[in-house]
Amino acid sequence: MQRRSNAYHISVLAVLMAIVIIQNIVPFFGYIPLPGLSITTIHVTVILAAVVLGPRDGAIIGGTWGLIAWIRAFVAPTSPLAPIVFTNPLIAVVPRILVGLIAGWIFMWFQKRHQKVLGMTLAGVAGALTNTILVLGLIGLLYSHQAAGFYQVNLSKLMPYLLTIVASNGIPEAILAGILTPLIGTPLLRFKK
């Protein structure tokens, strides 16, 4: 029984890692580009890994996403701002690892209280917002002059502009994750048993 459980765990981890790699490579699958920003869908895969496999494996999948984003910033940047900000692993990798950790911890807390669906929903929302807030916050904190130039806003108006992106970009991503995580996670958890 233990061997079957380990095989399931490794298989799901490998499949989710492959999905994250594909989402980073195939256009419009992991990032939906819009003028001045990009709607991300990769966080849903990371959150699902955290829910189904636990925070540690969620962090591994998130780290995979972050490493790919970091490498792409050097070899195939997704925007003119990417080679400036995503070459910093603090922005490219750390928030993505934290998506998996935070989503996994939130789900575990609710699972212990027998509220799996609520836990999955909140893990999805929190994971998505973790990515958006940390990435944009770190860009605003560490690269304010470059970001203001890229977004063509006055430096004094950069933080309100980034908060607008959080609202216009991060909230839809959080809603998407909050809906998809229980829809996909529930059958995966049932199959895990």
UniProtKB/TrEMBL annotation:
<keyword id="KW-1133">Transmembrane helix</keyword>
<feature type="transmembrane region" description="Helical">
    <location>
        <begin position="60"/>
        <end position="78"/>
    </location>
</feature>
<feature type="transmembrane region" description="Helical">
    <location>
        <begin position="7"/>
        <end position="26"/>
    </location>
</feature>
<feature type="transmembrane region" description="Helical">
    <location>
        <begin position="117"/>
        <end position="141"/>
    </location>
</feature>
<feature type="transmembrane region" description="Helical">
    <location>
        <begin position="161"/>
        <end position="184"/>
    </location>
</feature>
<feature type="transmembrane region" description="Helical">
    <location>
        <begin position="32"/>
        <end position="53"/>
    </location>
</feature>
<keyword id="KW-0472">Membrane</keyword>
<dbReference type="GO" id="GO:0022857">
    <property type="term" value="F:transmembrane transporter activity"/>
</dbReference>
<protein>
    <submittedName>
        <fullName>ECF transporter S component</fullName>
    </submittedName>
</protein>
<dbReference type="InterPro" id="IPR024529">
    <property type="entry name" value="ECF_trnsprt_substrate-spec"/>
</dbReference>
<keyword id="KW-0812">Transmembrane</keyword>
<feature type="transmembrane region" description="Helical">
    <location>
        <begin position="90"/>
        <end position="110"/>
    </location>
</feature>
<dbReference type="Pfam" id="PF12822">
    <property type="entry name" value="ECF_trnsprt"/>
</dbReference>
